[in-house]
Amino acid sequence: MNAITNLIGGRKVAPQGQERYCAVNPSRLDDVIADYAFSSADEVESAVAAAQTAFSSWKARGAIGRADILARAGAILIARTAELGALMTREMGKPLPEAMGEVGYAGKVLQFYAAEAQRAAGETLHSGRPNVHYYTLREPLGAVGLITPWNFPFSIACWKLGPALMTGNTVVWKPAPHHPLCSQAVIDALLEAGLPEGVVNLVHGGAEVGAAIVRHKALPAISFTGSTPVGQAIYREVSARLGRAQCEMGGKNALYVHEAADLDKAVTIATEGAFRSAGQKCTATSRVLVDRAIAGRFEEAFAARVAGLTVGDPMTEGTFLGPVVDDRQFAKVLGHITAGIAAGERLVVGGDKAPMENGYYVAPTLFADVAPDAPLAQQEIFGPVVAVIPVDGLEAALAVVNGTDYGLSSTIMTRDLEAAHRFARGAESGVVGVNLPTAGVEMHAPFQGWKGSGLGQPEQGLKIIDFYTHWRSVAMQFA
């Protein structure tokens, strides 16, 4: 069994807390990845102290020097795509091609932020006073806390670590416990690239470790990705102590099939958005809205496509849908399906466990004629379950799209340019697609949910640089 270690002040040490966690391969339940202890409160304190100690020298290295390390770490991840993709598949069940794609993307994210270090970090301004030279600088905040989820072990970690480190901050990082070896692989890439001691401190743990990081007054900023209730609680906690919080949270994302859509393409896009990664993406398609005039034809074609998806071992070539991540998620998703059936929702495809002997497999599931206010259409399920909702035209579709507490991602399928623009302007979501899946981001674009899907600065792109820095204005008079 693999050794699980924290990294604190440059030293790899086994966590010393009382609580334990057993990480299991969700596609082979007899494959125990690691049975390990979570960290203690004392270890969080040590990690914060190490990050504070390392801050001044890391800041003094300068942006270009910091960027060199990020660029090398990105190249290391890319070179290990096959190895680390297989590790991710084993730890959290993502089909191998998707896992390999994520590792490569994570490496490119680090390289993107390394390249951004070449960009000017301030401005020269005109002054209204004579003989005054006026300029601005970005300055790092200090030691910051990062809390990352289990569904993207490499990419979300890197799109937090990249901008935090490039701008000169040091880090205390708590990843989700499901994939400890993936988290350690990110750390190993940074260390191999030359990261100095104490700049990134990894502490394995659960909710108690996360809470200790969130409430720590020596961490002026916390970046979190996870569920909406937890994110909202973190935002309140950090704001109350006058810190900064950036929270990316849940979604109930809608794909609207307009009457002018290419029907076959709409089926393909809906399937990709809803069932890749077993629906375990905050941007996954959870609702499919269809103009009533084409609803029958779409449902028939969509149901046939979903029924034909290959469910199985995520390491096997050709597998479309692997397991959900753990027993808790398995029970949650099946509970939503059972409740939908009990409520009289019309089940079209799936509705139970997939017929696999070993693993947390849920059959891809499709409900039709779901009311917009039904639990299946309102609650985040985070699994391979889709509610099809008939609507009467674009304005009715927008009302349904916007009729949840979430506002992360939405898409319209149409060949009508006017309808596309009206949808893009009217959808209350931070990400809008036209003829594209609800799931899918690009590293140079801001990523932010609205309403219950996001709080604080957008993630990714250059907007996040504002989160990890303060501005300094300098006025210098010459006699």
TrEMBL record:
GO molecular function: oxidoreductase activity, acting on the aldehyde or oxo group of donors, NAD or NADP as acceptor
Classification via Pfam families: Aldedh
Keyword set includes Ubl conjugation: no
Aldehyde dehydrogenase domain sequence ranges: 17-474
Keyword line: Oxidoreductase
Keyword presence, Oxidoreductase: yes
Spans through the membrane: none
Matching InterPro entries: Ald_DH/histidinol_DH (IPR016161), Ald_DH_C (IPR016163), Ald_DH_CS_CYS (IPR016160), Ald_DH_N (IPR016162), Aldehyde_DH_dom (IPR015590)
Family statement drawn from the similarity comment of this UniProt entry: Belongs to the aldehyde dehydrogenase family.
Protein name: Aldehyde dehydrogenase family protein
